[in-house]
Amino acid sequence: MPHVAITAYIAVIFLIAAGLEVWTGPLNTFGDAGTLAAFGFLLAYFLTAIAAPFYLAKRRELRARHVGFAVLAVLCLLVPTVGSFYPVPAFPTNIFPYIFLGYLAAGGAWLFAVSRRQPGLLADIETDLEQTLEADQEHTAAARGAHAPASPGLLPGLVADAAD
After folding, report:
1. Of 7, 25, 97, 134, which residue is most buried, by most CB within 10 angstroms?
2. How many domains does one find in the chain?
3. Spatial separation of the C-alpha atoms in residues 162 and 164, rounded to whole Å
4. Is the pLDDT of residue 128 over 70?
5. Percentage helix, strand, coil, to 5, in the chain?
């Protein structure tokens, strides 16, 4: 039921933008919405930087430089994250991290509730993601030709080239 998720997402985003419009004009609302969205990007980048070494270790491809890049990425990501709290920005920007955390908590609560109603759902999602990754790797290998090795990562060619 992706249409339900998309509709809910659009409704939440509209309500956030409409709520911001109460305090600011259209240009500020656009900027504030982008600033609020940045927290989602930061979280995704943090999680990717942290997970990448574990993924490479699982594939037995982890090298010291991979850990170094992951640590460097986390340190770089701390700059905008800390800057979101200190010095304390003006209202309404000062409450954006908390709005994002509330949005994240609501999503987590929803996922928890859905997983309780449908016990095998999370395992099904994980299986589907793994099958999609395997199919993508097979497609990449076929596109490269029978003699070239398949790329070992989510970014075809980049991880393999960087490991050389």
Report:
1. 97
2. 1
3. 5
4. yes
5. 80, 0, 20
Structure-token pair, residue 158: 């980049």
**pTM across the whole model:** 0.66
Residue 80 is assigned to a structural domain of this protein? yes
Q: Which domain holds residue 16?
A: 2-117
146 domain residue, yes or no: no
**Would residue 51 count as lying in a domain?**
yes
- Give the span between the Cα atoms of 47 and 49, in whole angstroms: 6
Residue 69 in any domain: the answer is yes
Going by C-alpha positions, the residue among 4, 7, 31, 9 that lies closest to residue 107 is: 9
**Mean pLDDT, the chain, whole residue set:** 85
d(CA 70, CA 53): 7
Residue 106 pLDDT: 93
Of 21, 24, 37, the residue nearest 100 (C-alpha)? 37
**Terminal CA-CA length for the chain:** 43
Task: Work out the pLDDT band at 1, boundaries 50, 70, 90.
Answer: confident
CA-based nearest residue to 44, from 17, 73, 84: 73
Looking at per-residue pLDDT, the higher value among 4 and 145 belongs to 4
Check residues 102 and 146 and name the one with the higher pLDDT. 102
